Amino acid sequence: MSLAEVEAAELTLEGEETVGRLRDAWRRLLANKAAVVGMVLIVLFVLVGVTAPLLAPYSPTDNQFFDQIRPGYVPGPSLHHPLGIDQNGRDELSRVLYGARYSLVIGIVSTLFGMVFGLIVGTMSGTFGGWVDNLLMRLMDMMLAIPGLLFAIGVAALLGRSLTSVMIAIGVVNIPVFARLLRASMLSQREADYVLAARAVGVRRWRIVGAHILPNSLAPVLVQATLALATAIIDAAGLAFLGLGSADPGIPEWGRMLAETQAFLQRAPHLAIFPGLAIVVSVLGFNLLGDGLREALDPKFRR
Amino acid sequence: MLKFTVRRLVQLVPILLGLSILVFVWVRALPGGPANALLGERASAQSIEEIRRELGLDRPVWVQYFSYMGRVVRFDLGTSISSRRPVLTEINERFPATVELSLAAMVFAVGVGVPLGFLAAKRYQDWFDQGSMVGSLLGVSVPVFFLGLVLKYVFAVKLGWLPSVGRETVTSTAPHPTGYYVLDSIVTLDPAALLDSVRHLILPAVALGTIPLAIVTRITRAAVLDVAGADYVRTARAKGMQPRVVDRRHILKNAMLPVATVIGLQTGLLLSGAILTETVFAWGGMGDWIYRAINNRDYAVIQGGILFLAIVFVVVNLLVDLSYAILDPRIRTR
């Protein structure tokens, strides 16, 4: 066999194994009741986010029911307004439904942001080693030395009040987490037999990294991404709660809805409970799935 | 062991120096500045320029940095522009509040989480185990400020059992020699003040401690499951040792290693990450203070506060690593 043939044979073997392993993991994931519940919650969450304009009975931003509000009284749940009316005369159900869009977009974009940059840093670190690795990891240490939420507040304050800055702020906090995870995973793969084999037959370094090490290092990253999405939704709500979200006051963002109703807690607790529950349910979905994924992808649990 | 400690301490120096530069440059890059925050939006360019000169902000950034660091090494973190008090004095008052809250949260998390995780592992895969695992996932899914609001609504507003904000009753005149209110009341032998400060501590501690509780429960369960299958446990059982003694001496003791690490790491996180809880319960700690300083562009507070928290955070993490080396002799040899 020529070198190229050896390489090709080795690649197909590797490929088959990866597919087999993925199918195996998928089977184990479906056998996990909690993970399936998580997936159902996520699908619901995404569906609500996408179809909010069709589902919502009223506009989420129009104060059309302001005449029903009296001093010291905000109407609670009723037949016309299943979740009641908010302190500014807007239908609460419509606002909660629209809120899913914001949480969904913020969660996905910020996690992708952190993951992509984290992967770039982690890959460079894991591939080059030496002083590049040292420099990048010390930078990551610095970022990790600032508590996450405080860091996000700092970045958001720097970029000004907008949804974009919230997404970047939360994403930046995630960079060191993904970078270190991928680096550690790559380092453990680097010594694996199949890498040694590829090196022995003369496969180029970037090819080994791209075709062998990276794909095999991604499992923990995938788990982390699911869990990071959950945290991103919570953190976005936290930033909005602190008044660092979008500058538009009417925006139906769950965290902001919670923050605004703090003053009405005594008279209208439903205004805090519904957006809060919406956050809990969507975050729980990602946590359940992430947990299930971890077990499904962990070789220790493979039977 | 000493060598290990010294090496880790030396490694911290460049990280903290780098961080101080980053924070320094970052506060100056924030839109607006202390002069604008002090004078409001309609201030004239001339008066803003005057204040900037007064605060030394018209000098090149690197000159400002070196003069700042020169003062920092002499334990002078500057003066807050909004309260006009030294930053270190304010840290002295606020850090105990945050420490007290974090420790109370950790006591709650460990006190409930370790027994819960142990029981869950002992009853592996029955309803109790599965219930506690779902419960712990639910625990990490609840935003701390939402939990805080709910606790406040139920236990303070509706039931009226516990106070909703602050560290003590507003009218309290109890003295505070240490700044740790619970400790103060014990030192001054004042049972009424002790009850008051503990009552104020309960709701915020539960809110802040819920996520660590969930994590401690899961880690304890995993560690116990891991150890329970070990050969020495089987041996102990085989030689007829009482199950309770095996549980305590062989399983729990060895399972505590990873748990101790998590407890340490979580404490570090709490010390620095209690901003939202402190805001909801008007606690008057570090997080809440730095957050307001960012809004006021109070440079000295932001720089000093973040540096201080970062030092606490990395030192706690270092202590965790060291304690790990003490608990597990295998690590020390490396």
Description of the molecule:
The complex is a heterodimer of chains A (303) and B (334). With 303 residues, chain A is mainly alpha-helical. Chain A contains ten helices and no strands. The longest helix of chain A is centred in the middle third of the chain and has 37 residues, at 92-128. Mean pLDDT of chain A is 80; it is low at 5-16. In chain B, 77% of the residues lie in helices and 0% in strands. Chain B has helices at residues 2-29, 34-39, 45-54, 61-72, 87-122, 127-141, 144-158, 181-187, 191-228, 231-238, 243-273, 275-280, 286-296, 299-327, 329-332. In chain B, helix 5 (87-122) runs antiparallel to helix 6 and helix 6 (127-141) crosses helix 9 (191-228). Classes of the chains: A mainly alpha (303), B mainly alpha (334). The A-B interface holds A 34, 138-139, 141-142, 145-150, 153-154, 157-158, 160, 230, 234, 237-238, 241-242, 255, 258, 262, 265-266, 269, 272-273, 276, 279-280, 283-284, 287-288, 291 and B 14-16, 18-19, 22, 26, 29-31, 133-134, 137-138, 140-146, 149-150, 152-153, 157, 269, 272-273, 275-276, 279, 287, 290-291, 294-295, 306, 309-310, 313-314.
